[in-house]
Amino acid sequence: MKFSVRQLSGRTRLGLLALAPILLLFALIVLLPPDGVERAEWAQFIGRFHPLTVHFPIALILLVPLLELTGRIRRFPDSRVAVNFVLALATFSAIVAATLGWCLARSGGYSGSLVTQHMWGGVSVAALCWLCWMLRGRFPGQRWDFIYALGLVVAVGLVPWTGYRGGQLSLGKNHLSEFMPVGLRSLLGLSNREDNRSTSSMGGPGTFYGARVQPLFTSHCISCHGEDKHKANLRLVNYDALMRGSKQGPVIKPGDAKGSELFRRITLPPDHEDFMPKEGKRPLSADEVKLIELWITAGASGTQPADAIKGAPTNAAPVAAEVTFPELDVVAVEKIRAPLALAVAQLQKRFPDVLEYESRGSADLVVNVSLMGARFGDVDVATLEPINEKIVIGDFSGTGVTDRSAGSIAAMKRLRVLGLMHTKITDATLQALGGLDQLESLNVFGTDVTPAALGVVVRLPKLQHLYVGDTKIPANVPVSEALRGKLTF
Amino acid sequence: MVMSDSKIRDKCTTNNDLSNGECAGEMHTEEKVALLQAQTRRHFLRNLTAGVGTMFMGTLASQGAGPVKATELASDGTPRLDFTRDPSRPLAVLPPQFAARAKRIIYLHMAGAPSQLELFEYKPELTKLDGQDCPASFLAGKRFAFISGVPKLLGSQYPFHQAGTSGHWMSDRFPHLERHIDDLCIIKSMRTDQFNHAPAQLLVQTGNARLGYPSLGSWVIYGLGTENQNLPGFIVLISGGKSPDGGKQLWGSGFLPSVYQGVQCRSHGEPVLYLQNPQGVSRPLRRSMLDAIDEINQQTYAEFGNPETITRISQYEMAFRMQMDATDALDIHQEPAAVLTNYGSKPAESSFANNCLVARRLAERGVRFIQLYHWGWDSHGASANEALNFGFATRCRETDQPIAALLSDLKERGMLEDTLVVWGGEFGRTSMRENRNGQVMKFVGRDHNPGAFTIWMAGGGIKPGTAYGETDAMGYEIVKDPVDIRDLHATMLYALGFDHHRLTYSFQGLDQKVTSVKPARIVAEVLA
Fold this sequence. Notes:
- The complex is a heterodimer.
- Chain A is 44% helix and 5% strand.
- Chain A is built from 18 helices and seven strands.
- Chain A has helices at residues 10-31, 41-47, 50-53, 55-70, 83-107, 113-135, 142-171, 182-187, 208-220, 239-244, 261-267, 286-297, 330-350, 378-383, 406-410, 427-432, 454-457, 481-484; strands spanning 355-357, 365-368, 391-395, 417-419, 441-443, 465-467, 487-488.
- Chain A has a seven-stranded mixed sheet, with helices on one face.
């Protein structure tokens, strides 16, 4: 019998056309899975359209049962007529979305079970859509209708399952519960501690692992093997994650340091391809390697007490002191700055160049109004009131500030450094500062402060430096030996 | 296309104005007609792209102050710190990467390279061997500027003693500085790979021995901005009768926008040359002139987006503000007589003492980076002024008292807490006496030694009363804890609140940094 494509219906022809990319997608997921490697930028670029396009098939698939059900109501007699068309649209848009999704996953540095589940979910939805489209009304009989309905139900059920994982990929694992009100949270039986990573009892701070081993991973490894970036799907963030290992299996073999992949890699010659940490990053010192070796040999325990392993190199006496830097967490910083961000911005506008955060990672503030001179006075000190609690360094030197500001300055409870050089303040201001228990440095150079003020100052618990040159305090003022060492004339 | 309608564009300088009619409203009807006829599809398309650009710039400008944003990734995969600012305020203050110990630097560069063996390096063994032939191992594979043949070892020309509670050895040349010996951290194991003044100075000041790299001061004000918008954030003061060999590149901005270059000021006479208005030009007249120029420059910037145009505008504006503030800041006549005496400063002349006093005044006024150069330390022994027993002693006298006075002033004002003071040359001097052309020279001197030299640091973030590093018994080579120039830079940036890897600027496809590509180490041992 001669077969011709022309004999097939339009739907079948289109369906066969759609089957090819679906099968291709299955093949891609199996043969070229996402492996955490970032690839071509153009692929990432088009992949980024995945979240946009994916909402078309979602809406269309959910529309199908709606049309099927409303079609049974007399008021909407035409609903079911459109189902085939909608299914076709859903199938094709699902294929497009899944293709883009694969591009994103393959080239965007993703890996892990979450993305794999999401991909299988997505491509299954596309396949089920195709199946429903092909089956619907083609064969008579309740059995076929049932299969169609079943396929539809599974597809509809797969949509939120897959979508939830997509949300986790883009917004974080706990994206639905993160900002959930406490009441609802307890109603659902979720713990109030969002961070369930720390619930593990293994590797706590009192253990050898927590005190000695994890800090090494934290300083050397987690920039690549952390929560956010996890090359080879290895996360060296805590004991459990370490023992879970990488995509190639466990990296620690308890009791056998030489047989542990992690140990092998840190002890290779530094120019070896597999050597860790990778080039450019500081290798572990001999002592640090020794520490890990002893820990693995002793059984790689997560509960062993910190002093359990004899002969472990101590933290003291490093070969050369090393300065390390914590990575800035932009989101966290914005969060801690948020409550006062508006007040800070307004004050920055009002007093340009005098108010700045102490650092890029801090919500604490540095105020230096000394350059404004007499243009900054008591009235202006009062305007700093909303941010009082955040000021850690305040330099009011050379300004028009007087004793009238004593209360405002005393309210800056967290001041570490206070400059009042060349101002009109007197003992009255100093006597008001007794509550500044964080103050380390106080500068009253060139003021009319007298020895009477020293009584308050001597009680400031953290004070290290008191600059009293050019004041009414003579260099031979009788003070206690403890205070003498802090005075600078 | 641009030529054809240039006449109309003269009337109305940008095409945006043509289309929005602001300018057109003031024109005669026939001009409007001509204008409309001159509008082509090309104009439309051009304005279209300009519009997209404007929208982009608008989003940039709307970003608030105090950036924490660091989303862009650098080549090593870490997020790049964001140093972008409102283009009209290129020197706006930015917070450091982490809480800093120092907020400003005063760098006292002793140009010509002072001899460490006459100041801080006590080497009794060398004194014992004075006049003996230099061992061959000292000469093998070494290059010298002038030494030839077999030179003689040369013991220190001045007596040493222990000073302060820290017990550091120092010679009798710095009697005033001795007061502050317990404030200093002396690094005796500095080394460089340059043995000629100009490249060595460039290396110290820019991190690179070749021309075209931004100086340390430029990096610092690029990273932190400056608090006083009426003064340059990076000011250079020169004394000793000669500019340093490295020339103005020593305070150049290299590939950074030129708004970050150092500005040379003078402690005597007009503080900045050509800053004052010429006769017959009043301040209001100057203002209106600048307004017109600024407007034209703004239009140019809107059209081409070249950051150097913004530099030009902000430099003009700063010069205008400086006409008042710089004159005041650099006028040491205002200081009481007692202060002038402390520094040994005579306002009528140009001297290192005056520059030290100015440095303190600038520090008080929020200038971020103050760079002093004092020439005359190149003690080869070729002439009296270049001799360890003459010119060198004079240089010590010229600098000792002012540096001590500067440290005292900073200390009593509480400013040594957040000011990092650095003293040093560009390399060290040999343990051998120079024998130019193989001859015994009339004066005593030493040749260049890049292998070891001494610097000291004091103030913000530095451990006071310490010494770091060691040289051999002859003071010729480092035997312990060498510190490269890039290590020094990394350490200085650390005091200012930066990881030197992260103070970067993208240029020629590389995230450029002052410590360049070789690994640099923050000398944690000298940090408080």
